[in-house]
Amino acid sequence: MGSKNKLRRFKENETFSNVVQPTREALVDHQFELKGQWNASFFKKEQPLVLELGCGKGEYSVALAKKYPNKNFIGVDIKGARFWRGAKTALEENIPNVGFLRTQIELIDHAFAAHEVAEIWITFPDPQIKYKRTKHRMTNAAFLERYKTILKPDGVVNLKTDSEFMHGYTLGLLHGAGHEVLYANHNVYKQEGSPEEVTSIQTFYESQYLEQNKPITYIRFKIK
To answer: Does the keyword NAD apply (predicted)?
Structure first.
């Protein structure tokens, strides 16, 4: 993507009513007014709040919002030029129950209050395979603690990935730490019984992985 195109998208994001872009300082200094008020102030409708972390172009967030109008969805990513597409689509198609938050995942517990979130989706994250990159893996122990803070007591996390490494790493970590694995599948499109919201929604990259016959894995779990 050219830098001019990127700048245009950043500018356009500033005009979108469904995009929120707090400064790091506002989040860290507890001055972010939507924390604890997403349903009341942003969506203006009390429904279960669902996050997609590292949402990329926002395809999954938008598709989930269309599929489940009785839930509120927020795609979270630091790269605003990417989720510009999802935000623009949601506005064009008048999908009121989805928004986008530009911030780092490390600050997620500064953007949402304790027990404010019903469910988290992590779709096709960078597996960060090198050992020195462990701290950046989105299912490492430190991230799970942050998620636990903002999730309701019965809240769940969904991990969908084409990385067998990420799938195995996460399963091992979950079992080792005593978290509750509700469902795990090494190939959601080959094995029967896969949850419908996992197989009925595909991102652009996911369709490319499937063309290459890469298995798509899925884990649904609760953080204890």
So the answer is: no
The pTM of this model reads: 0.94
Q: Which helix (H) or strand (E) holds 209?
A: helix 204-211
Does 52 appear as a known binding residue? yes
Stretch (H or E) spanning 92: helix 80-92
Known binding residue 25? Answer is no
Catalytic site residues? 126
| Residue 109 labeled ligand binder | no
162 appears as a binding residue in the annotation: yes
Phi-psi region of 22 (alpha: psi -120 to 50; beta: other; left: phi over 0): beta
Q: Which of 127, 130, 191, 190 is CA-nearest to residue 159? A: 127
